[in-house]
Amino acid sequence: MKIELNDLDPIERFSYKVVAQGGRDASGNRVIKDEDLPIYLGSVRNSTIEGIEYLIIASDLQGNVFEENKPRLLGEVLPDFLQLLFEIEFEGVDRERVGVLLCGDLYARPDKRGGLGDVKNVWRAFNDKFGFVAGVAGNHDDFGEPEAFKSFVREEGIYYLHNHVRKVKALKIGGLSGIIGRPDKPFRNDESEHLKELKKLLLAQPDFILLHEGPNNVNPELPGNHKIRAVLERSKRNVVCCGHNYWDRPLIEMDNGTQILNVDSRCIILKIEK
Q: What is the C-alpha to C-alpha distance for residues 230 and 227, in angstroms, rounded to an integer?
């Protein structure tokens, strides 16, 4: 199985708003700027995956769309646009045969950068428009009180992943939520434990491994975690999707054949091909 991207140029863009770096101007007023989420098209070649025609993969959808001056999370609104895109560009595709993979950080405050917030409705919005949603949590994500979270992960079509592999239709997906950091903070994991669980996922060799925090890369130089890179380099070939650190190129291949698909602040649609 091998991922290929059709073009370096996006097939479409979706507009949203973010709080500018620094947050406020000299007068103390909040500064909101416009951004465009690029949507790319690619394929999964030489696949044995059955029952799925397309995968939508996205991460770090950290923005808002204002409707009647009221903010909604980018990830709550994007699925409607993607549904329309499928109707126009991929006529006749059964949306039940389209899966969604999310790599975390789906929350953004409309008044300041950063923050932590509930992202359950982002997952639900994608699940409402497509066949299923599988994903991991980022360090800006929250899922409400423990009982609400337990109920959420039991919802049909929702596959939350942390330290395990799930089979969705014929697709095997592994996931590791959070980032390396202080375990007393939300979705931060002890470094040794995080790397140990990553090694287990790599040994299991699912079709896709979803991470929030991904590796760095040396040539070309791309930001990320060097210890995660070292683990990936010493493992068998895998396909890894991640976010957390933005790369100016979405796809690289390591010397061992492992492909890293970075979907930070972008959305990639992959056609499943035999």
A: 5
User: Is 0.90 surpassed by the pTM of this model?
Assistant: yes
Q: Taking the mean position of all CA atoms in its chain, how far away is CA 99?
A: 12
Domain spans of the chain, in order of start: 2-21+30-272
In angstroms, how far is CA 87 from the centroid of its own chain?
23
CA atoms within a 13 Å half-sphere pointing along the CA-CB vector of 58: 27
Asked whether the beta carbons of 193 and 73 are under 8 A apart, the reply is: no
Region 138-145: mean pLDDT is 96
End-to-end Cα separation, the chain, in angstroms: 9
d(CA 272, CA 256): 23
Beta-carbon-side half-sphere exposure of residue 38 (alpha carbons within 13 Å): 16
Burial level of 155, CB count in 10 A (0-12/13-18/19+)?
A: middle
State residue 177's pLDDT score.
98
| Residues 198-218: tens digit of each pLDDT | 999 999 999 999 999 999 999
Contact 178, 169 (CB under 8 A): no
Residue 185 CB contacts under 8 Å (≥ 6 apart), including other chains = 139
Condensed to tens digits (0 to 9), the pLDDT of residues 97-121 reads: 999 999 999 999 998 888 899 999 9
CATH 3.40.50 fits 2-21+30-272, yes or no: no
Q: Which residue has the tokens 């995660």?
A: 228
Question: Is the CB of residue 139 less than 8 Å from the CB of residue 117?
Answer: no
3, pLDDT greater than 70: yes
Angle at 80 between CA 250 and CA 62, to 5 degrees: 45
Q: What is the pLDDT of residues 28-56, one digit of tens each?
A: 677 889 999 999 999 999 888 889 999 99
